[in-house]
Specification:
The complex is a heterodimer of chains A (293) and B (327). With 293 residues, chain A is mainly alpha-helical. Chain A has helices at 5-8, 13-30, 32-35, 66-102, 104-118, 122-132, 137-163, 167-174, 179-190, 192-216, 226-234, 246-275, 279-286, 288-291. Chain A starts with a helix and ends with a helix. Classes of the chains: A mainly alpha (293), B mainly alpha (327). At the A-B interface, helix 5, helix 6, helix 10, helix 12 and helix 14 of A face helix 1, helix 7, helix 8, helix 9 and helix 11 of B.
Chain lengths: 293, 327
């Protein structure tokens, strides 16, 4: 591999802006206890108070400090993003790569599953499940991961199909390496940039889905979420509170999503020359359904 | 082991996906511990229910029978177009959905037309000015908009134009009880449509723009563009007749593939603006725990999405002569 897209993107303004936005959110999440003087669930005794030195963003309809809820909300988004990204991408890589390497009925089964699953919008399944099962953060994470892997698996599979015809993989096979060894020592390292791109895309989708579900009212009652803050604040647009309740939550969510979008876009452009070598993969990467959640 | 996508349309994928949704709809309420009737209709509905009604419903869903009989009852109900009874609206679920569907379709189709044509024009202009300040500015701006969660875009526009400036109506699709007729009615509908439409277009624009731009960039290097220029075609003709026409295929495919996405975005936008379409209906169903309505909406939605995907597949095969001649 002569081109390293991961090194390449450090010169890309989109990547730098994206990284800056994400660092901001990570800082908010990490320093939440330091930056806020109230527990996010603490009842301060006054509702709808205006921003003051005591409450930087005032208090909400439940009398809770909005600034601390904003900071702790970053934790929820980032935790969901990180876990879903790792789980989904692992599933995509394992299923996509093993299908390409093993072939036969195994491959046909999984590719059929991929085709059928990509036809179903995950939002529908999430809403349906959320309505019947008591929504919890763990359930959301598991469901999201279980629903999001197929697109990534399809991309990984086609990449592995072209990789496995390469000389060094053939050589490894000649020496008696089994598919697990080939996957671990040859394929996964070469797929590094692609896997990173998939993880960013999965993380973005996870953040969006968590907020969207919370916005619809499908969320863990114990979890602090920007989506839920926006849902609650939307009922009070006739008051002035939206300026320090609704907007900050929406902006924080947007900064996270835009950051991930920029980073993903930069990575995709950096990988372009490699991807363009194979027209089939190019078509799939440019297929907008696979790019943006 | 076939590595190519099958060139004939594979209906079985759609059948499998549809069956998966049907079974989810059937199994989920029955998996909940306790009385399945509670799960199907929700606790709130049963409070208002008389024992006679309950007995009738148990008979209708064959809940006292085996799972096989329940499945038969469920399938027969669906085949007759019976999606159940919405206790919140006190009407058939299918009737309630049909009342809301036109508003959603209006919003979706207008967004599709506006976003696709605007995205194409911007993409062509940007692509032919690759690397210039205009190109970089528009790309960065649209990427930014595309990153915004759609409901926040809606809320943002609502707060600025509706709440702060007061130039746009806050909610709904028409002014209630205004008794407007003809042209006045149309302009009232348009006024209510403006903000939801604008938010959807702004978020939707980025994907089509980027695709058009990249397609045009690669097309402008082709020999036939050089020929067109050599013939003395004006820059406008080269851009809009030669390049645009040849970039239509990927754009139409992409626009089609984005439709399911657009429907989901529309759901959120309708909730923000209380626009009386399927999205607001879904919100009500979730709030009121009106399970038959919820299931009906999601079922219809799934069928809609699958149909659109199938149509895009068909259209793609008709439009691309290479695919058509391939077999």
């Amino acid at each position: 591999m002569h081109i390293d897209p991961l090194r390449d993107i450090t010169h890309n303004p989109f990547a730098l802006e994206g990284l800056a936005m994400l660092s901001l959110i990570v800082l908010m999440a990490a320093l939440a206890p330091v930056l806020s003087s109230y527990q996010p669930d603490y009842y301060t005794g006054q509702i709808f108070s205006h921003p003051s030195s005591d409450h930087l963003l005032g208090t909400d309809s439940m009398g809770q400090d909005i600034w601390s809820r904003l900071l702790y909300g970053a934790r929820t988004s980032l935790v969901v993003a990180a876990i879903v990204a790792v789980l989904t991408t692992s599933l995509s890589v394992f299923i996509g790569a093993s299908s390409a390497l093993l072939g036969g009925p195994y491959e046909r089964f999984w590719m059929r599953a991929v085709d059928a699953m990509t036809a179903i919008p995950p939002v529908i399944v999430l809403i349906l499940a959320g309505a019947y099962i008591q929504p919890s953060l763990l359930m959301l994470i598991l469901l999201l991961s279980a629903l999001s892997w197929p697109e990534g698996a399809r991309i990984i599979r086609s990449q592995v199909l072209s990789l496995k015809e390469k000389e060094h993989i053939n050589a490894s096979r000649t020496f008696g390496a089994n598919w697990k060894h080939i996957l671990r020592n040859h394929i996964v390292p070469e797929l590094g940039p692609l896997i990173t791109a998939l993880m960013i895309q999965d993380a973005r989708r996870a953040v969006f889905m968590e907020a969207s579900m919370a916005f619809l009212g499908i969320s863990d009652p114990m979890v602090i979420s920007w989506g839920k803050m926006m849902q609650q604040a939307l009922d009070f647009t006739y008051l002035d509170v939206w300026k320090w309740w609704l907007l900050p939550a929406g902006l924080a969510l947007s900064v996270t999503l835009v950051g991930l979008t920029f980073l993903g876009f930069a990575l995709e452009s950096a990988m372009d020359p490699r991807i363009r070598k194979s027209s089939r993969i190019e078509m799939e990467i440019e297929n907008p359904r696979t790019i943006h959640a | 082991m076939s590595q190519e996508r099958p060139s004939r349309i594979d209906l079985s994928n759609y059948v499998i996906a549809l069956l998966a949704i049907f079974s989810l709809n059937f199994i989920l309420p029955r998996m909940i511990p306790g009385d399945p009737l509670h799960a199907i209709y929700g606790d709130e509905a049963l409070v208002a229910m008389t024992p006679e009604m309950e007995a009738e419903l148990i008979k209708k869903f064959a809940l006292d029978q085996s799972w096989g009989d329940q499945l038969l009852a469920y399938v027969f109900g669906l085949l007759q177009g019976d999606l159940g009874f919405s206790y919140y609206y006190k009407d058939q679920v299918s009737t309630v959905i049909m009342g809301a569907l036109p508003w959603t379709l209006l919003l979706v189709s207008l967004t599709l037309v506006v976003a696709t044509s605007l995205g194409m024009i911007l993409g062509i202009e940007s692509g032919s000015r690759r690397g210039e300040p205009l190109d970089r500015g528009v790309t960065a701006g649209l990427m930014l908009l595309n990153g915004f969660p759609v409901f926040f875009m809606g809320i943002f526009l609502l707060l600025i134009f509706g709440v702060s400036l007061g130039v746009a109506p806050l909610s709904g699709a028409v002014t209630p009880y205004s008794g407007l007729k003809g042209l006045d009615y149309a302009s009232d509908v348009l006024r209510h449509l403006a903000l939801p439409l604008a938010s959807l277009v702004l978020v939707q624009l980025g994907e089509l723009y980027l695709l058009t731009r990249n397609t045009v960039v690669s097309l402008l290097g082709e020999p036939f563009i050089l020929t067109a220029r050599a013939k003395g075609c004006s820059e406008l003709t080269v851009k809009y007749v030669h390049a645009a026409r040849n970039s239509l295929l990927p754009i139409i495919t992409a626009a089609g593939l984005l439709v399911p996405h657009l429907f989901i975005r529309t759901i959120f936008i309708e909730i923000v603006f209380s626009y009386p379409g399927i999205g607001s209906l879904l919100h009500t169903a979730l709030d009121a725990r009106d399970y038959p309505l919820l299931q009906g909406i999601l079922l219809m939605f799934a069928v809609l999405v699958l149909t659109v995907n199938l149509l895009v597949d068909l259209l793609y095969k008709r439009l691309d002569p290479r695919v058509r001649y391939a077999h």
